[in-house]
Amino acid sequence: MDYLIKDLSKMTGIASHAIRKWQERYNILRPFRTPNGYWHYSNDDYFVLKSIQMRLDQSQKLKKIMALGREALLKDKVTTFSEEQLTFIKLLQAHDYDSVEKIFDKQLKGSFSAWVHHIIGPAVILVGKAWEENLLSVPEEHAFSHWLHGYIFAKIEKFPPHAKPGWLVTTFPGDPHDLSSLLHYAVLRSRGISAWYTGNLPENDLLREVESGKYIGISISVVLEQPEKKVKALESAILARNPKIKIRFGGFGMSMRKKNKKAR
Ligand code: B12
C-alpha cells in the first residue's frame, strides 16, 4: 500500500512542504519513485510521521527526535489503525468496491446477524473513525455509505418476503448516522420480521408515515446522543398520531446514554 505526499499530509495533518523539508534534511522516510516521476510513500512512512508528530506534541525537539532514527520511531506505531485496517481504508480511497465486497462476502459464513454485528458494524465504525482522522474524505465516506446500502439491500433480497403491517425502521430525525438503522433493519429482515427502512427522514414526514396506520411498530436508531426531553417529545408526537404503535429506541447513542447514566 502506498501514498502520495498529499495523501500523507492529509492523513497526518503535517504540511507537504514540512514532510519534504524533513526528508531532505533527515532522510527519515523511504519513498520510491515511479516511472512517471511521482514519489510514493508506505504505511511505515505514515507511522514514522505519526511518531514524529506525537513526540513534537510532547515538546520533544525535532533534531533529537530525528536522531533516534527511523527504526526507533517505527516502534511507536502511533496510530489508531492496524495494518489490516489501513489496507481496508486504502481500498475505499481507491473506490475498489469489488475487493471490499470480496472481504465482506468471505466472512459471511454462519449467522447473518452475527456477521452484521461482528464484521459490518466494526467496518462502519472504522470508516467513521477514518473520516474523523482525515484518512477518508467526505465523498469517499459517502461513496462507502451508498455502496453499503446497495450491498446490504442485495443481501436482504434473499430473505423471506415481507408485508405490511410491519416495523418502520428509521433514524432519529436530524441524526445523519443512517447506517445504524440500515444494519438494524438488515438484522430484523434476516430474522423474518417484516420491516421497512426509511433512512433519514425529517420528523414531519416520519409522523405522516406513522399516521398512515401501516406499521405495528417503529424502531428508531439513535446514534448521536439525544437529551431525554427530545426522545420523550418524539415518543409523544408519534403516539399522538398513532396511539397503538409500539416504539423502540436503540443504537449507539442509546447505549452511551445508559452507560453515562450508570456512571453518574
Ligand atoms: C460511522 C460514524 C459516522 C459516519 C456516519 C455514516 C452513516 N451514514 O451512518 C460519518 C463519518 C458520516 C459521521 C459523521 C459525524 N459524526 Co459520527 N460516528 C460514526 C461512528 C464511528 C460509528 C457510529 C455507527 O454507525 N456505529 C455502527 C452501528 C452499526 O452501531 P450501533 O449504532 O450500535 O447499531 C447496532 C445496534 O445498536 C443495533 N441497533 C441500531 N439501531 C437500533 C434500534 C433499535 C430499536 C434496536 C433494538 C437496535 C438497534 O443495530 C446495529 C447493528 O448491530 C461513531 C463513533 C463510534 N465509535 O461508534 C461516531 C459518532 C457517533 N459520531 C459523532 C459525531 C459528533 C459526528 C458528527 C456530527 C461530527 C463529527 N464526528 O465530526 C458528524 C456528522 C456530520 C454530518 N452532518 O453529516 C459522535 C457522537 C457524539 C455524541 N456524544 O453524540 C461519535 C460518537 C464520534 C465521537 N467523536 O465521539 N459519523
Structural account:
This protein has helices at 5-12, 16-26, 43-57, 62-68, 70-76, 83-93, 97-107, 112-132, 138-156, 178-190, 203-211, 228-241, 252-263, and strands at residues 2-3, 32-33, 39-42, 166-171, 195-199, 215-221, 246-250. Helix 8 runs antiparallel to helix 10, helix 9 (138-156) runs parallel beside helix 10 (178-190) and helix 11 (203-211) packs parallel to helix 12 (228-241). The longest helix has 21 residues, at 112-132. Helices cover 60% and strands 12% of the residues. The protein starts with a strand and ends with a helix. The strands form 2 sheets. A 4-stranded parallel beta sheet has the order 5-4-6-7. The chain is α/β, with parallel strands linked by helices and 264 residues long. A hairpin with a 5-residue loop joins strand 2 (32-33) and strand 3. It folds into 3 domains: 2-79, Multidrug-efflux Transporter Regulator, Chain: A, Domain 2 (Orthogonal Bundle), CATH 1.10.1660.10; 84-155, no CATH class; 159-263, Cobalamin-binding domain (Rossmann fold, 3-Layer(aba) Sandwich). It has 13 helices and 7 strands. Bound molecules: cobalamin. Cobalamin (B12) binds next to helix 8, helix 9, helix 10, strand 6 and strand 7.
Which range best describes the helical content: under 10%, 10-25%, 25-40%, 40-55%, 55-70% or over 70%? 55-70%
The H/E string reads EHHEEHHHHHHHEHEHEHEH
State the secondary-structure class. alpha/beta
CATH architecture of the largest domain: 3-Layer(aba) Sandwich
Fraction in beta strands: 5-15%
What's the number of domains? 3
* Major sheet summary line: 4 strands, parallel
Overall 3D shape: elongated
CATH topology of the largest domain: Rossmann fold
- Mean pLDDT equals 91
Discrete helix count:
13
Largest beta sheet: strand ordering: 5-4-6-7
Q: Calculate Rg over CA atoms.
A: 23 Å
- CATH class category of the largest domain: Alpha Beta
The molecules bound to the chains, other than polymers, are: cobalamin
